[in-house]
Specification:
alpha+beta, six-stranded antiparallel sheet, 7 helices
Length: 281
């Protein structure tokens, strides 16, 4: 199912301008959101982030069009994953962007696989470094090759995903989300300038933690900090709060940690109240 140019299409194969800079140069942004009961979870936050990413690249995202696209595809499945993509559009040959870009937007939907939310993950250390000086490290741009290669390498080692260090050797993120280390009653995550995406669920965890009598901190984390943590979890918009069972050769009992359980329950309750249905049936 695909939304493009104001209409829904059953087939995801559509005519495409071969001069589009998203195709040729990865010059575009995207967003992934959870939809339940036809409602996009944290819709305004997703739209704001998509708009900010476009602005960082130097083109405007039509947020009214993006909202219409997300809602149109969300209505097709009770539990769904939505991807909204915006490219700068076509341009002349060369690297410099056109003076008057005409962005192209579309949204696609897929049923959410059962068991996606809150499922445990195993992570492997990536040999690829996250460049915290790059705007691409703080926005969901179309240039995801590092994450693709890291994910494949992690899978070859028996893991679900990869953990990236930044150029300073500190923890940045996983290929599919942000990371939190739990020590005692505190949850800590790297700040955005360490090469971290401004995750929607990341922000909710930081907001919910104080009400659960958990300390919440944004500070640089080293691999040693993760090794010494009581628990580690990953956040993204589809997995929500995913307990980490292993990083490299270090095992964790994250799924049963009281802080992880409390955050899972609080987030589930918040989403159910907003959407009128539970995250998992």
């Amino acid at each position: 199912m695909l939304w493009r140019e104001g209409a829904l299409h059953e087939d995801t194969v559509q005519p495409f301008d071969l001069a589009d800079r998203g195709l040729l140069l990865g010059d575009g942004v995207f967003d992934t959101a959870l939809a339940l009961g036809g409602r996009v979870v944290e819709e305004e936050a997703h739209l704001a982030r998509l708009g900010a990413a476009g602005a960082a690249l130097g083109f405007a995202v039509d947020l009214a069009e993006a909202r219409a696209a997300m809602r149109a595809v969300a209505a097709r499945h009770p539990r769904a994953a939505i991807r909204t993509t915006v490219t700068r559009g076509a341009g002349p040959r060369g690297l410099r962007p056109p003076a008057a870009p005409r962005p192209v937007l579309w949204a696609a939907v897929a049923p959410l696989r059962p068991g996606t939310a809150f499922s445990e993950v195993s992570l492997g250390w990536s040999a690829i470094r996250r460049n915290e000086t790059s705007p691409a490290s703080r926005h969901k741009t179309l240039g995801y090759l590092d994450a693709v290669l890291a994910a494949e390498a992690a899978a070859q080692d028996g893991h679900d995903e990869a953990v990236f260090l930044n150029t300073a050797g500190r923890v940045a993120c996983a290929g599919i989300g942000t990371l939190f280390a739990v020590s005692g009653r505190e949850v800590a995550t790297p700040p955005l300038d360490e090469g971290v995406l401004a995750g929607i669920v990341r922000a909710r965890v930081l907001a919910l933690a104080p009400g659960l009598r958990l300390g919440a901190a944004e500070r640089p984390l080293t691999p040693e900090d993760l090794a010494q943590a009581d628990a580690v979890f990953l956040t993204n918009s589809l997995r929500l709060v995913a307990p980490v069972r292993r990083i490299g050769d270090r095992d964790y009992a994250s799924a049963g940690h009281p802080a992880v359980l409390a955050l899972r329950e609080a987030l589930s309750r918040e989403i159910a109240q907003a959407c009128g249905m539970a995250v998992e049936s």
